[in-house]
């Protein structure tokens, strides 16, 4: 019992010392910067000793609004994503765009060689390995023999001939897997390592999802050529022209997104390196006299894309194998109206679908539409070039980079028209048809590059305006 009072007295002597030691931040005491920052944020807890030795009034604690603003500023400094994306991200995006460009051309070759229906199953993982022995090849060939294409077109095909078309389709699918993995893995790395801005991270995730959707569209397209109920009985076994165009259009969108974002990063970094010159360039491009040119470039990009998609319908219907002459189609510039809007393609008793079904399913009208769109594209490009050449105001205000980009568009559209006419006259030979498809993507690329030099993105303009350093003039009295 005698030990209890002694213990209570020890606890009373240690209590003030424990309280003071427990609630004192020794790290802040040793770091004057933190201590000063804490006083500026929460105010002093009592009177302060002034320089003349008198006690001054305690500082008034700041309001809640001041504390909130301070927390917001600290939160802004601790952003996860940087303000601008790294240059390596731009090179990666451009490399991915080049890979997509290649697979689009290779996919056209697969379509032209009629190899797309050689693989009758979709195995995203195990399908990356081709048959390795005679038994595997026999099994794959047996699956192909049950397809409509073999029964109607290739009943006498040998195993060696089957291997040639099989490897074409297998190579196309393998290339698609490479495109997906070479995009997904670096995308995770760049986002995790904070190499991209927040907006660019969202765009990259969107493109990654688009690549996955493109793989699904590819199988959905192939599946349409493996069933008899998806095309007319006894007709040429082919994939649906609608699904083929959707597959091609998604590839074009994916390629355009990679190209545009890669070029945007490079342009953004170049402009931010010299904000003063960037401000002058933006003021020049945003002049009202160039409004027509800026809008025309955007409309031209849409027109080129629509022309390419009409080419997808031509390929899906083999419409290039008829009317192999130019500019005439038979006895005139257009086939007879009864042929262009035939009742054969209508599926309703009242023929209410005769217009759009003929426009999308009648090979004669589909080829005519493609001719009209191609001619309109060529005329629009030449008209826009003449506008920049012979308008004194536009010729003076347009930067040299935009003029060079316009010349590039003129060159590609001329080449594309020559390839299209030659492909038609020579009954769609494999090299010319493949070059024509590549030319459409090259023409779209040239228009996108021209747009990147002409349009002024709002975000880049905002970043440039924030980095413009205005000289501050200060007047100082000479020291006496």
Explain what the structure shows.
With 480 residues, the chain is mainly alpha-helical. It is built from 19 helices and 2 strands. It has helices spanning 3-22, 26-30, 32-42, 64-77, 87-112, 134-145, 148-152, 159-192, 198-223, 241-273, 275-285, 291-317, 337-340, 354-361, 363-390, 392-397, 400-425, 430-454, 458-467; strands at 48-49, 55-56. The protein has a two-stranded antiparallel ribbon. A hairpin with a 5-residue loop joins strand 1 (48-49) and strand 2 (55-56). The radius of gyration is 34 Å and the shape is globular. Residues 18-23, 32-49, 51-62 and 470-480 have low confidence and may be disordered.
What order do the helices and strands come in, and which of them pair?
Elements: H1 3-22, H2 26-30, H3 32-42, E1 48-49, E2 55-56, H4 64-77, H5 87-112, H6 134-145, H7 148-152, H8 159-192, H9 198-223, H10 241-273, H11 275-285, H12 291-317, H13 337-340, H14 354-361, H15 363-390, H16 392-397, H17 400-425, H18 430-454, H19 458-467
Antiparallel strand pairs: 1-2
Helix pairs in contact: 5-8, 5-10, 5-18, 8-9, 9-10, 10-12, 10-18, 11-19, 12-15, 12-18, 14-15, 15-17, 17-18
| Helical residues, percent | 55-70%
How is the main sheet built?
2 strands, antiparallel
Distance between the termini: 83 Å
Strand content: under 5%
What is the ordering of alpha helices and beta strands?
HHHEEHHHHHHHHHHHHHHHH
Which structural category do the helix and sheet elements fall into?
mainly alpha
Strand arrangement within the widest β-sheet reads 1-2
- Outline the low-pLDDT stretches: 18-23, 32-49, 51-62, 470-480
How many β-strands, per DSSP?
A: 2
Question: Measured on Cα atoms, how large is the radius of gyration?
Answer: 34 Å
Shape descriptor: globular
Average pLDDT for all residues: 85
Tally of separate helices:
19
């Amino acid at each position: 019992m005698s030990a209890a009072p002694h213990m209570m007295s020890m606890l009373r002597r240690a209590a003030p010392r424990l309280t003071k030691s427990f609630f004192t931040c020794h790290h802040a005491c040793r770091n004057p910067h933190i201590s000063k920052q804490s006083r500026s944020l929460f105010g002093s807890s009592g009177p302060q000793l002034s320089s003349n030795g008198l006690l001054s009034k305690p500082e008034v604690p700041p309001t809640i609004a001041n504390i909130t603003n301070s927390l917001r500023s600290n939160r802004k400094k601790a952003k996860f994503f940087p303000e601008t994306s790294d240059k390596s991200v731009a090179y990666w995006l451009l490399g991915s765009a080049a890979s997509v460009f290649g697979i689009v051309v290779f996919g056209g070759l697969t379509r032209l060689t009629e190899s797309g229906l050689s693989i009758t199953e979709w195995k995203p993982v195990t399908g990356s390995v081709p048959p390795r022995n005679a038994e595997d090849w026999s099994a794959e060939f047996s699956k192909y023999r049950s397809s409509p294409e073999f029964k109607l077109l290739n009943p006498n095909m040998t195993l060696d001939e089957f291997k040639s078309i099989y490897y074409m389709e297998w190579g196309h699918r393998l290339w698609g897997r490479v495109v997906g993995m070479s995009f997904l893995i670096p995308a995770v790395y760049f986002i995790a390592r904070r190499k991209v801005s927040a907006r660019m991270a969202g765009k990259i995730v969107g493109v990654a999802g688009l690549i996955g959707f493109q793989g699904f569209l590819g199988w959905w397209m192939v599946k349409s050529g493996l069933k008899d109920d998806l095309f007319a009985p006894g007709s040429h076994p082919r994939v649906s022209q609608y699904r083929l165009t959707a597959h091609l259009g998604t590839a074009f969108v994916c390629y355009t997104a990679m190209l545009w974002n890669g070029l945007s990063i490079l342009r953004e970094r170049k402009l931010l390196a010299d904000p003063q010159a960037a401000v002058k360039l933006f003021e020049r491009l945003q002049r009202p006299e160039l409004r027509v040119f800026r809008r025309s470039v955007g409309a031209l990009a849409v027109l080129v894309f629509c022309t390419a998609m009409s080419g997808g319908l031509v390929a899906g219907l083999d419409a290039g194998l008829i009317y192999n002459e130019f500019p005439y189609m038979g006895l005139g510039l257009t086939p007879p109206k009864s042929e262009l809007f035939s009742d054969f393609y209508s599926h309703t008793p009242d023929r209410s679908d005769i217009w759009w079904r003929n426009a999308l399913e009648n090979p004669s009208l589909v080829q005519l539409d493609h001719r009209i769109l191609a001619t309109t594209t060529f005329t629009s490009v030449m008209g826009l070039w003449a506008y920049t050449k012979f308008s004194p105001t536009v010729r003076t205000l347009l930067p040299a980079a935009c003029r060079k980009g316009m010349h590039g568009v003129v060159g590609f559209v001329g080449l594309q028209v020559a390839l299209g006419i030659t492909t038609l006259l020579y009954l769609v030979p494999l090299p010319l048809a493949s070059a024509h498809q590549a030319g459409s993507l090259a023409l779209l690329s040239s228009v996108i590059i021209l747009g990147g030099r002409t349009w002024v993105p709002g975000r880049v303009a905002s970043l440039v305006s924030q980095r413009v350093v205005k000289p501050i003039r200060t007047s100082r009295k000479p020291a006496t």
